[in-house]
Amino acid sequence: MQDITNENTTCNLTNNITIEKICNAIDTINCSNSVIYCYTGTGNSFAASKQFSKFFDGIEIKFITQELVDNPETVKKDFGIIVVPSYAYGVPKLVKRWLKKARFYIDYLAVAVLQGSSQRGTGAEVAKLLKRQKQQVAYSSGVDSMENYVHLFGHPKPEKAEKRAKDQHNSVARLCEIYKNREVKKIKTFRPLSAFVSFIFRTAKVFFPLRYRTTKTCNGCEICRKVCPPDAIVMREKKGRKIPKFKALRCDHCQACMQLCPSKSIKFFRIKPKSPRYKHKDCALKELIKRD
Q1: For residue 284, which of 235, 202, 223, 193 has the smallest C-alpha distance?
Q2: Spatial separation of the C-alpha atoms in residues 68 and 105, rounded to whole Å
Q3: pLDDT of residue 153
Q4: CA 243, CA 257: separation in Å to the nearest integer?
Q5: What predicted TM-score, i.e. pTM, was given to this entire model?
Q6: Which of 15, 52, 193, 222 is most buried when burial is the number of CB atoms within 10 A of its CB?
């Protein structure tokens, strides 16, 4: 083995330091050139997005709203996460419209699906829609969260909501490590049963807004309009006060309007004015407002 002179050693050390600095710089660039897209109604997806953002040094979080559909972006990033809830084994209709209109050029794109029980083909639907525009989803997985479809499953008891919030936190923490290591998982996009169930739900939900009722306790604060992702609520004058009017064709039935109403003025079938409401414990109401 040949001896190495001090001069060569210094040179090698300098080269190593330079390489290390370059690698660190590349990591910094990749981190800043990243984005999280989030569709949220009552805060489950947003709580997960905040956890992702904190782990990855404050990645920007963008709400998937009607504004993004009306003004589709061309997204060129090194790293991205799409965080969406599973609605009857599919994505909300607004998310589907957004995925079709925007253009994505993301080196590593992950999909996190918030699921109360099972996501089934929700992640596959996202992957299939993006595949049509040549964007590959590197990793898709479900995130255990609170089942907040109270019309069918009832309002969660506090202890159950607390447990599911912890389950969600643990699921997201696991995915943070997976995304950090840039792991890849093959995604099967063939989902006939899930597609059928999702189609039935999307067809039926057009009639759901017709069953929303506003009580006399409504004070016209417009919180319902401000938190609605698809901008499906307008305020109209009735007997000298403003009350919400629901656009049936736009409504995703995310329930944000009903669940986040400060005065519990919006009711729907089994959800009465005195019924409890649900919001993820780690999200403040002001954080869920999507428009002024």
Answers
A1: 223
A2: 17
A3: 78
A4: 12
A5: 0.86
A6: 52
